[in-house]
Amino acid sequence: MANQFDVVVIGAGPAGYVCAIRAAQLGLKTACIEKWTDDKGKTALGGTCLNVGCIPSKALLDSSHKFVEAQKDFKLHGINHSGVEMDVPQMVARKNKIVKTLTTGVGGLFKANGVTLLEGAGKVLANKQVELTKADGTVEVYEAANVVVATGSRPVEIPPTPTDGDLIVDSTGALEFQETPKRLGVIGAGVIGLELGSVWGRLGSEVIVLEAMDRFLAAADEQISKESLKICKKQGLDIRMGARVTGSEIKGKEVHVTYADSDGSEKVVVFDKLIVAVGRRPYTENLLAADCGVNMDERGFIFVDDHCATDVPGVYAIGDVVRGPMLAHKGSEEGIMVAEIIAGQKGHMNYDLIPSVIYTHPEIAWVGKTEQELKAEGVDYKVGTFPFAASGRALAANETEGMVKVIADKATDRVLGVHVVGPSAAELVQQGVIAMEFAASTEDLALTIFSHPTLSEALHEAVLAVDGHAIHIANRKRR
């Protein structure tokens, strides 16, 4: 029957669309529901990541970095020029073109794999039925042998600084500025705040980042976070830790923000634009019928087990609506795992090896355990580091800030964590993910040949440094 499917996925973001494609590849009759529409009212696939998240922010990050290179670094390479200017509307238009290309591409992948797209808002009913409410208000009900909820997340709003879509914006609004604000405020020194703050900082904004926590990038290894903070401040970002925002007031074309400083004093800063980037929350409003049997916690996250199964057999939830880091690649892999489980296969997801990346320039990335975690767990470990300042490839590229850090178990030599701040940090950490997935030791990596000259040699040297065998830096004396 037309209204019956083996799998109905609600949400076409990186968790949902990947799940739908994999399910269809495995021979399951699959539909995917999406309600997001573009400015022309046409259904837009790809979720937050493709439309207003990962992809558009990277487009702006790369454009702004090239602008800084042209302004400051070209002369080092012997490239003489004058009068470099940034055309912000053109930069944003390029970003929009990339987004359209990729979102349209998801539609093409649906057609190629035989996924049925259902346009509208989905709701989980009892007995694995799914209600579809279309844009015109009409309602249809679909029967599904399996339902997968992948509705993603939305930015958190805080009472002291309600967004108005103009002077006070969330991460989505910060991607649409048509000119560089002179004074830019960012609430939140997390991934989104740092990335967006660095974009507009490079283009000339005076950027102040207000972060309520006392420690910068608390989830990262402390040595890496300290090095990253030093680099960010050197680039001109005014990052104020322990700054708890208590209120805001719009006066004309200015935003006056009040915050309690780390010493308890009250301070006021004035901005032309303010970005609120204090995190995201699961998008589960009006998603679950009261009698559907699927349960959520008080924050709106759907309860699932290690295989993303909810309390109702045959109903799963993946991505930002469930526990774990809100990362596109985590959601995608959960989608593949669930599709394979539904198809009777084993399915695999290693939650211990989900890499984290902040796409500032240089990048900050890590996977596995940090030093502070291992100390808390009482694990005896050893550490090796290597600075990019000693890398021939980094020197040639004028990308010498940062370091690679490798942590290994002292008894077994198994790699426990790889942490990088520096050029191509995300790619280097991915090498660590592969090694750790196969339970590699530092000796395994030390015996592996790395091409010369490459940035990845920094990982090789850090691995060698774990046991005091680095070649291209002086090794610390071992006690």
From TrEMBL:
Signal peptide: none
Pfam families from the UniProt entry: Pyr_redox_2, Pyr_redox_dim
EC number(s) from the headed UniProt entry: 1.8.1.4
GO cellular component: cytoplasm
Record-annotated active site: 452 (proton acceptor)
Cysteines joined through disulfide linkages: 49-54
Enzyme class: oxidoreductase
Protein name per its UniProtKB record: Dihydrolipoyl dehydrogenase
